[in-house]
Amino acid sequence: MADLQDRFLRIRRRFGFWTRTKRITLLVIIALCFYGVVFGDYGFLRIIELRRQRAYLEKQIGLWTIKLNLLENRKRRLEKDDFLIEKLARERLGYYKPGELIFLFPQPDSSDESRLTGLDNLLLNR
């Protein structure tokens, strides 16, 4: 019987490498690695968030590129077209030629503040 018990202990020592403490330690290490892969600074969720942010920023870059192109076209037009400069001066700054009559039409919005906008404010403030 003692021989059988010694034999069992030798087998247990040979194959009993994974003691309870080692198994728990290994599970904790695996759990921490999994947590790092999913929730860490370079984890799966952070990568998804960064991709979403990158798509948003690329969309914004596209919109600002379009706006830049429109402004550059407008700048070129203003450099070359005297009629456009005169039109903008009349509309935005309220300039007029001597002897010219200006007709003011009421705005469709009924609020007092929005009725007097742009050219109307400039003409009334003179």
Tell me what you see in this structure.
The protein has 126 residues and is mainly α. The chain has 2 domains: 17-66; 81-126, no CATH class. It has helices spanning 2-15, 20-39, 44-80, 82-93, 112-115, 119-124. It is rod-shaped, with a radius of gyration of 39 Å. It starts with a helix and ends with a helix. The model has no long low-confidence stretch (mean pLDDT 80).
Strand content: under 5%
Count, helices: 6
Main beta-sheet strand count, sense and barrel state? none
For the termini, the CA-CA separation is 119 Å
pLDDT under 50 segments (min length 5)? Answer: none
Helix content: over 70%
Number of domains: 2
Computed structural class: mainly alpha
Summarize the structure.
The protein is mainly alpha-helical and 126 residues long.
Summarize the topology.
Blueprint: H1 2-15, H2 20-39, H3 44-80, H4 82-93, H5 112-115, H6 119-124
What labels would you give this structure?
single chain, 126 residues, mainly alpha, 2 domains, 6 helices, 0% strand, rod-shaped
